[in-house]
């Protein structure tokens, strides 16, 4: 196993994890694992093969044989996602896909099947790992564990803005309900529930803008990993 440092950033969707992780991966020039994308690709693959979310055996087989590639296309965090060689970068970002990923994610053997793939991202010079159980299960010995959170309304607002900026239709009330439903499923499941690790630093981003969160995290990185000077912020 690599002894390169790992920083984990866990938390619910819309908490700002993606933006923070991209920033850190770019600044530090470290590898980046978007573990949610892996669950999302599995959901797309299952849908394409008409595998029902109750069919555990088929889902586990699919997870074991999943032909997924993450191709770095620019700075560390810009990644194209391919399933069976086909670009699915945008297809995995829909609300529908997030929901489908959350429905299959509680299956213990599915999670087990995806574990080695996630740990394979752990390479020098370091790794930024984004997800729900990065600090608790996948990289328990990470040098810095961050748990980002924000209230549901704020997260729904952010998602609404993102969708509108992309010219897509969005309904704030539906987004709020969808996020709350996904939170409940992700955090109450028995297997690797979404929760802060005991040694995680919890940051509530509800009332913070992105620059404030970045400054806060850059300071934590400087404090916890003094050997890194190029953390910006
Ligand atoms: O972070 P995201 O919204 O892309 O994740 C999609 C779903 O995948 C999320 O609702 C739950 C699941 N997931 C998980 O169970 N464990 C992870 N480490 C990452 C995501």
In short:
The protein contains nine helices and eight strands. By secondary structure, the protein is α/β, with parallel strands linked by helices.
Task: Supply the key terms.
233 residues, alpha/beta, Rossmann fold, 5-stranded parallel β-sheet, 3-stranded antiparallel β-sheet, 8 strands, 15% strand, globular, binds 2'-deoxycytidine-5'-monophosphate
The total count of helices amounts to: 9
Sheet with most strands: 5 strands, parallel
Note the beta-strand portion.
Answer: 15-25%
Low-confidence stretches: none
In CATH, the topology is named Rossmann fold
Number of strands: 8
Helix-strand pattern, N to C? EHEHHEEEHHEHEHHEH
CATH first level: Alpha Beta
**Overall form:** globular
Neighbour order of strands in the largest sheet: 2-6-1-7-8
Structural class: alpha/beta
**Radius of gyration in whole Å, from Cα?**
17 Å
Question: Percent helix among the residues?
Answer: 40-55%
Give the termini separation: 31 Å
Mean pLDDT: 93
CATH architecture title: 3-Layer(aba) Sandwich
Number of domains: 1
CATH superfamily: P-loop containing nucleotide triphosphate hydrolases
Bound molecules: 2'-deoxycytidine-5'-monophosphate
């Amino acid at each position: 196993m690599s002894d390169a440092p790992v920083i984990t950033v866990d938390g619910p969707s819309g908490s700002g994890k993606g933006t923070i992780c991209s920033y850190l991966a770019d600044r530090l020039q470290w590898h980046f694992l978007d573990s949610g994308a892996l669950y999302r690709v599995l959901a797309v693959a299952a849908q394409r093969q008409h595998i029902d979310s109750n069919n555990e055996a088929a889902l586990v087989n699919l997870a074991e044989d999943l032909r997924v590639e993450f191709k770095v296309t620019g700075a560390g965090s810009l990644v194209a996602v391919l399933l069976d060689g086909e670009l699915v970068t945008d297809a995995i970002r829909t609300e529908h896909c997030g929901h489908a990923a959350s429905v299959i994610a509680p299956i213990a053997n599915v999670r087990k099947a995806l574990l080695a793939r996630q740990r394979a991202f752990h390479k020098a010079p370091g790794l930024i790992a984004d997800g729900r159980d990065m600090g608790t299960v996948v990289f328990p010995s990470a040098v810095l564990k961050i748990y980002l959170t924000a209230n549901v309304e704020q997260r729904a607002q952010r998602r609404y803005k993102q969708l509108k900026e992309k010219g897509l239709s969005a309904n704030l009330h539906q987004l709020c309900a969808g996020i709350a439903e996904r939170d409940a499923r992700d955090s109450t499941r028995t297997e690797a529930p979404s929760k802060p690790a005991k040694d995680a630093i919890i940051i509530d981003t509800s009332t913070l803008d992105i620059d404030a969160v970045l400054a806060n995290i850059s300071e934590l990185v400087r404090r916890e990993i003094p050997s890194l000077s190029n953390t910006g912020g």
